[in-house]
Write a structure and sequence with these properties.
about 325 residues, alpha/beta, 5-stranded mixed β-sheet, 14 helices, 5 strands, about 45% helix, about 15% strand
């Protein structure tokens, strides 16, 4: 058995706020830092003002770029953090140092596909068609990450942003949007916007929502609902045919499917297909099966970083004993 003090020093403390999956994922990120990144020190988290050190928090990640799988992804994250539009809310400490955060996960997952799209849109379209087969994607028109439609007063008039977004043409020739929300261990946020007027008008003038939904929006939708409404409003503003929204998370983070099912109670049944769930594991498998050979190291590294629980299972068992 490994000495208790050595384990605590190497991987950091556990958190009483973690559920079973979050504890396992926090350890995976701590293990990855120690064994793959070879970084012995770790910082305070989850925020820069926090007073507890955790093994999943990098030190000076804004300099090293260690929260990203490749330097190109780090450079893009730096660019996005440096040139924010008014209203955009990228928290740099979280983005560059918190390995458990879903925000760097989103950059690590979608930037390589965005870069591929910019020089080979056919290859990118093939990958995304397989990832989201029900959408019948024929051609990708745009891929954006951490995207806030602007000006905000023409949309929801708040800071709701897409983690990622696709604009695409379908087999039938429709021009549609897919709003993408990525989660790793977190639940979808429940906080409503302070200004609900745009949301209320949108829901009341939509065929998508039932009477229960029209009542619920009066007190404000949480993150899932706001993202769905933002996609719908984006489609209207930009004269697209349909708006869809997806939540991507690991299978063991089952809060996503529960919250989607709850939101279905506010929608007319014929529109349920506009909001759906895709597991992170499924995304990885589909990318592996369709990506160009040059991208295979990326998706294999991504899988090891976020889903490689089996590789550190023996370490985790020893950690739990302490």
């Amino acid at each position: 058995m490994i000495d208790k003090k050595i384990i605590q020093e190497k991987y950091g403390p556990s958190s009483s706020a973690d559920n079973i999956f979050a504890a396992k994922a926090r350890f995976l990120q701590s293990w990855y830092r120690a064994h793959i990144l070879k970084q012995e020190t770790y910082g305070y988290g989850p925020d820069e003002t926090s007073e507890t050190k955790y093994g999943n928090i990098l030190v000076s990640g804004e300099v090293s770029g260690s929260n990203f799988l490749f330097p190109e992804i780090f450079k893009y994250a730096q660019y996005r953090a440096q040139f924010l539009k008014k209203g955009e809310t990228i928290k740099e400490y979280r983005l560059f140092n918190n390995m458990l955060s879903s925000q760097p996960l989103c950059f690590n997952l979608f930037y390589p596909m965005k870069a591929l799209f910019e020089h080979d849109h056919i290859a990118a379209g093939k990958i995304l068609r397989n990832c989201f087969p029900t959408l019948q994607i024929a051609t990708i028109l745009a891929i954006e990450i951490e995207y806030l439609p602007y000006p905000v007063n023409e949309y929801l008039n708040d800071r709701t942003a897409f983690d990622a977004m696709l604009i695409y043409i379908t087999d039938a020739g429709e021009r549609n949007i897919l709003a993408i929300e990525t989660k790793y261990v977190e639940k979808l946020g429940t906080n409503p916007s302070s200004d609900l007027s745009k949301q209320i008008d949108l829901v009341n003038n939509s065929l998508i929502f039932n009477e229960f939904g029209k009542q619920k929006v009066l007190s404000g939708f949480g993150q899932l609902g706001r993202n769905f409404l933002l996609a719908e409003k984006f489609g209207i503003q930009n004269r697209l045919n349909k708006a869809f929204a997806v939540v991507i998370s690991p299978k063991e983070n089952d809060s996503s499917t529960k919250e989607i099912n709850e939101f279905y109670s506010m929608m007319q049944p014929e529109f349920h297909h506009r909001l759906f769930y895709t597991s992170l594991e499924y995304m990885v498998d589909q990318i592996k099966s369709t990506a160009p050979k040059a991208l295979i190291p990326w998706i294999e590294n991504f899988n090891k970083r976020y889903l490689g629980f089996s590789e550190c299972d023996s370490f985790f068992k020893e950690y739990k004993k302490q």
